[in-house]
Amino acid sequence: EVQLQESGPGLVKPSQSLSLTCSVTGYSITSNYWGWIRKFPGNKMEWMGYISYSGSTSYNPSLKSRISITRDTSKNQFFLQLNSVTTEDTATYYCARLTMMVLIPNYFDYWGQGVMVTVSS
Amino acid sequence: DIQMTQSPSFLSASVGDRVTINCKASQNINKYLDWYQQKHGEAPKLLIYNTNNLQTGIPSRFSGSGSGTDYTLTISSLQPEDVATYFCLQHSSRYTFGAGTKLELK
Fold first, then answer.
1. Contacts of A106 in chain B (CB under 8 A)
2. What phi, psi does A14 have (nearest 5°)?
3. Do B34 and A45 touch (CB under 8 A)?
4. Pseudo-torsion of CA B93, B94, B99, B104, nearest 10°?
5. How far does the CA of residue B58 sit from the closest CA of chain A (Å)?
6. Residue B42 and which of A42, A86, A92, A96 are 20 to 30 A apart at CA?
7. SS3 labels along B4-57
């Protein structure tokens, strides 16, 4: 069974970088697409970006140059880095697998439980 | 960007009731619409993908319909274990989410 688990610090100071890891078991990250989504207090959800089976990436334009998604295929993990965080980046962060349709990302089928990150001094 | 308007925000219903939740897109999303269930503290669970396809293992009381800009999730006979928050997601152009519907038992 495909399982995803997010990990990382629960508290980050403003202006610093947020770094999270998604550990995947039961499936190789060299197949499919793998994404990050966040849920803000108040329950609004936002797609942040994804990394493909080949390592290419796509990001939400609203995050501009602050975001980076990378991977370590030897550990079957992928990573989120969000730079220059503010209190508005306080959210629960989820990683998830995307299905593919003709090599194009489709819908999210497996999600992690999420990790809550608070940005505060 | 495509905006998703989900309604209602909150829903109270009795066991056995037929429940419907709606999502309206700001433009045609060509049936690229999915529905998820999330219980407190758990990972979101995929219920329906691409408008009307039931994910493996999901009870048949869940169904989806729609086209163009308007989509509906239906629970044909509400069960106690269906108490959760439900949200829609369009993947026609990038990804945008509905605001969620919190479903409780009356």
1. 49-50, 91
2. -55, 145
3. no
4. 90
5. 12
6. A86
7. EEEECCEEEECCCCCEEEEEEECCCCCCCEEEEEECCCCCCEEEEECCCEECCC
Write out the two tokens for A22.
Answer: 């998604």
Give the whole-angstrom CA distance, residue B77 versus residue A80.
40
Q: Which two tokens stand for residue B14?
A: 């009795």
Distance from CA of B41 to the nearest CA of A (A): 7
Contact B50 A107 (CB under 8 A): yes
Chain B residues within 8 A of A94 when measuring between CB atoms: 43-44
The residue of chain A nearest to residue B46, with distances taken between CA atoms, is A109
Q: Which tens digits make up the pLDDT trace of A109-119? A: 999 999 999 99
Contact A113 B42 (CB under 8 A): yes
pLDDT tens digits, A22-53:
999 999 999 999 999 999 998 899 999 999 99
